[in-house]
Amino acid sequence: SIADQDLARAEEQLERLKIRFPRFVPPEDLISGINELRVEKEVADAVAEGDPARLLALPNQYPEAFECPTPANIWRIADVVAETDQKAQLLPLYRRVVEECPNPADRFFAIERTLNELSAADAGLLLEIERQRPEGSSDPARLAELDARLAGQQFSAAFNAGRSRTAANAAMRMAQPGPAIQLGYQALNSNDLGLAKRWFDRAIRWGGGTEARIGAANTALAANNFKLAETLINQLPITDPRTAELAQRVRVSQFDGLLETGNLAEAGRVALETEDPGQATLLGWTYLERNDLGAAKRWFDDALRWGGGEETSLGATTVALAQQDLDAARGYLA
């Protein structure tokens, strides 16, 4: 009867034996088997009913049925309760598995379920319990894998909530490029260029590839470190459109700095490379202010050839008038 898992029939036969043989003492394995069937029926009925309160009460009613080495009934309860608003009540059961079960697979399954179903703090608690086990009784590789997953959850929550220090600590534990890149751009957007550089450098070391180098190049540009920016850009795929965009930004930023410091020769070299009409026009006006009409004319003419607009035409006209070349002035205004 027990083999057939027919609880009612097994209980009926046991009662008949007790009546027929009043001094009969049922063997422990018989009583244990019937109790197991009774618990299985209770669990099955509660699962079918889908009542989380009833399910969560079963481990207290039948503690022996929820002990290791086989936590099958715990998983059966958890499968239902995890889909309800009572799922936080599963933590004591998962903790029992981690503390008491000898099989590492069961313990890590409980920790993984905690990661998926409960809070990062709950998962951290169970991971710490597992970490305290004697050497050789756990699985270091699996422990590291789950710890990295936990750090990922903690990073996302902290980053989205603006808790920068907590996010940074989680990112360092993860040692993955994605979080480092996110923190790099966060620092870059806050104009903390030193911190941004450190995070993008870490992202590159951790295998961030193109995305990490683009962030690092943007940081170098913001710091006017054009040499480093060019080095990073040269490491980018030439087929990526962002490579050309960054290279253009370097040349523009270089030009602005050179013009601001009065290094017109180098600024002119950059303008010839970019063939940017705006840069050529700025050079034209700069030379005009210095009364170098020949140089001003050359740059305004180049700017017009490269597509310069009204400001370029006005500059070229001004030079022509200063040179008393009325025909040229009329031509620029045409």
Description:
The chain is mostly helical. The chain contains 19 helices and no strands. Helix 5 packs parallel to helix 7, helix 7 packs antiparallel against helix 8 and helix 8 runs antiparallel to helix 9. The longest helix is centred in the N-terminal third of the chain and has 22 residues. The radius of gyration is 37 Å and the shape is rod-shaped. The relative contact order is 0.04. The mean pLDDT is 89.
Total number of helical segments?
19
Low-confidence stretches: none
What is the terminal-to-terminal distance?
A: 108 Å
The amount of helix comes to over 70%
Using DSSP, what is the number of strands? 0
Biggest sheet, in brief?
A: none
H-E order: HHHHHHHHHHHHHHHHHHH
Broad shape: rod-shaped
Mean pLDDT: 89
What structural category characterises the helix and strand content? Answer: mainly alpha
Instruction: Work out the radius of gyration.
Output: 37 Å
Question: What is the beta-strand fraction?
Answer: under 5%
Question: What descriptors fit this protein?
Answer:
mainly alpha; 19 helices
Secondary structure: elements and pairs:
Blueprint: H1 7-20, H2 28-49, H3 52-61, H4 72-81, H5 91-100, H6 104-117, H7 120-131, H8 140-160, H9 164-174, H10 177-189, H11 193-205, H12 209-222, H13 226-233, H14 241-261, H15 264-274, H16 277-289, H17 293-305, H18 310-322, H19 326-333
Helix pairs in contact: 2-3, 3-4, 5-6, 5-7, 6-7, 6-8, 7-8, 8-9, 10-11, 10-12, 11-12, 12-13, 12-14, 13-14, 14-15, 15-16, 16-17, 16-18, 17-18, 18-19
